[in-house]
Structure formats: C-alpha cells, structure tokens
Amino acid sequence: MRTGDQVVQELPWRWHTQGTIFLVGGLGFMFDAWDVALNGFLIPLVGAEWGLTTGERGWVGTANLIGMAVGAFAWGGIADLVGRQRAFRWTLLMFSLFTVAGAAAPDFVTFCVFRFLAGVGLGGCIPVDYALVGEFTPARVRGRVLTAMDIWWPIGATLCGLTSTLLAGFGGWRALMLVMVLPALLVFWVRRSVPESPMYLVRRGRGDEARAVIDRLVARTGAEVGPWRLPEPQPAPRLTPRAVAAQVAALWRFSPKITSAAWAVFLTVFVLYYGALTWLPSILKAEGYGDYAAFMVATLMTAVGIVGVLVSAWLVDVVGRKWVIGVSAPLSALALVLFATQLEIASAAKLWIAVYGFLIQITIPALYAYVSELYPTELRASGFGWASTVSRVGAGFVPLLFGTVLWPHLGLPLTFVVIGAAVLLAMLWMSYAAPETRKHELDA
C-alpha cells in the first residue's frame, strides 16, 4: 500500500493547487534576490553619503550576506524542527522589520547591524521555500518546478536594478530600502494560506493534519487515488543546540561525499556570483560610468538571467542536473574574465557581462534543484540550508575581500581567474562524489 508521501508525489500538477504554492514561495525568493542585488547599488550611494573608503564600503555587502548565512543555517534547521509553514512566514516578517530600521539608521555601524539582522530573516527564504515547494510537487515535474523557482531571482534582481535606477536621485539609498517593505509584508500575509507540508507532518506524528492536507490535495487535483497509509509517526525533536549539532552530524553521516560536493559547489558558485553582483556598479563607476549608466548595465546582467533560468528549467530534465551545473559554471567564470580584460571597450564589456548573467542563471537554478534532491526528507531543509550557509559565509566576505585585497592587488582579470579555477575544481569533485538525481523520486 502506498504511503501519503508517494500519493503527493504522484498527483497531477495543477496550477490552482501546487502552482499556487510555487507562486507564493517564489515571491519570497524574489525578495531575497532583490535584497542581495541591492547591496551593489547601496555601496556607492552609502559610501558617498558617509565618506567611506573602498574597504569600508565592502561591509555594506558583507554584513548583509553574513546575516543571510546565519539565516540559511538557522531557518533551515528551524523548518525541520518546527515546520515549513511557520518558518515560511516568519522569515519575511523579520526581514521587513529590520529593513525599515536600516533605512532609518543614523550612522554606518548601526546601518550594518540592521542589514545583518534583515539578512538573518531573509536568508531563510531559499532553504525553507525550496523544501516546502519541493515536498508539494509531483516527482515527474519536480526538477522543472524547482529549477523554475529560480526565475524569481533575476526578476527580483532586475526589479531592484530598475527601482534603484529610478529612485537613486529621489530619496537616495533610504528610499531604495523602504520600497521593498510594503510588498514584502503583503507576501507575508498571503503566506498564511499555505498549508504545512504533509511530508513534514507525517514524520512528526500529526497524522490527522497530514491526512487532511493530502485529502485536500487529492480533491483539488481531481486525482483518483486508491488506499494509502500514513507512515509510523516519529517523535518531534526539540529545538536545542544539541539538536542542531546532530543535524550537521547527520548530514555528514548520511554521505560525506555528497555533503562535501554540495558545500564545495555552492561555495564556489556563489563566491563567483556575489563578487560580480555586489561590485559591478562600483567597477563601472571606477571606469567612468555615471550612476544611471552603471546601474543600467548591472540591471542588464540580471535581466538576461531570466532567459537563463528558462533554459536551465528545460535542460535539467534533458541532460541532467550535473551536466548543466558542470558546464555552465566554468563558462560563466570565463565570461567574467573576458569582461574584465575588455572593460575599456564598452560594447565588449557589456556583451560579456550579459553572457555571464545568462550563464550563471543557468547554473544557480540547476544547483538549487540538485542539492534539494540529494537528501532524504528529514534532512532536506537542513541539508540545503547548510550548503547555502557555507556559500553565504564564504561569499559574505567577498565584498570586503574584493574591495581590500583582490581587486586592488590582483586586478580584475586575475581575481576572476582565481575564482574560476576554484569553480572548476568543485565541478570535478561533484562529477565524482555526487549522483545524478534526474527523474529520481524524493527519498522518504
């Protein structure tokens, strides 16, 4: 007899059912992208207002990204312990409150503290959203759906670029931060209607709730389902430091190869991505671009990524997750090297940054879908969350190191060569250590 997990994974896809959860989850993902992209636009504006050095300006991005690293770790574990649906809502609420506080910051240190705390809230969106959407999505379309989730990222980053370009001269950086808050609070309210994951409920002994959620899904999709049963309930763990430490140990005990590959690929890809995203407006301004021109080129990079996500959503089920990641990530690093070597040729620089924006958005959605499928249900959110945490910690220091060490001493081309070599090594390890997950059912 089939279990409730299998019933959910075998249901037909319906936009008015699983698609609604995809859309609501994606909107939170959009704000994650908006906030990360905002760092690049805040750096020159905040730096000019408070007279910051290049190294000090790096803290604008570092404070926010380190907060997101803490949030990815904390919220991934919280979601596994207290439920996807609660974490699904609380992440955006925390982000909204501290973004308002940051917009009112009287000095740079206070500003960085609030950016860190806003990052803690928003850092939980990606692992929590992917875990929840993935557990409602039928197995046969899960790869495409989870990959398509990332289309919200370039949409959010592009909206950030357009808004920053329009508002930079009207209210400065404070207006850029406040404009995110009202729609974020609206999404927080909408998320109240999303049900708890039945895969989570059945493993926490809440059988009546799980059965009610699954019955509603069956009724709404119009599927004909035979007899099924709930798995034996498992005792719900308590949220303690020991429980969190046990989750980390469980990830490595499950598979050292898989966990090390997931962490290595996440880290190198996002060091590459955040380095370019955070500093591109400043690089262009140093080359003589004005605010408007620099912001528009940065927006071009994110806008072409929308096409990249669509291509990725098609490719992951055609050639597999590993091939998509392993080819597109090194090529995106190469595009950045070519951008840096031809920076003085405006047309060539714009071409290569657009190519980079397209390729990196083929890599990232495939990576999200891939890592979220490598772990069983009880480790899925924390497994994804820890991989995201490692990448955010490493990439979180990129704005600071980029502005104080890499760019000043190595120059842009060599900086991107070094990062690209690290990406290539991570791809080689992934090809050996981690399995392909295309068309695999989620492990129970």
Automatic annotation (TrEMBL):
The chain crosses the membrane at residues 21-46, 58-78, 90-108, 145-167, 261-280, 292-316, 323-345, 351-371, 383-407, 413-432. GO terms for cellular component: plasma membrane. It is a multi-pass membrane protein. CDD domains: MFS_SV2_like (cd17316). It is found in: Cell membrane. Signal peptide: none annotated. Pfam families: MFS_1 (PF07690). The keyword Zinc-finger does not apply. Its main location: membrane. InterPro entries: MFS, MFS_dom, MFS_trans_sf, Sugar_transporter_CS. Residues 21-438 form the Major facilitator superfamily (MFS) profile domain. GO terms for molecular function: transmembrane transporter activity. Keywords: Membrane, Transmembrane, Transmembrane helix, Transport. This is MFS transporter, putative metabolite:H+ symporter. It comes from Allokutzneria albata. The lineage of its organism: Bacteria, Bacillati, Actinomycetota, Actinomycetes, Pseudonocardiales.
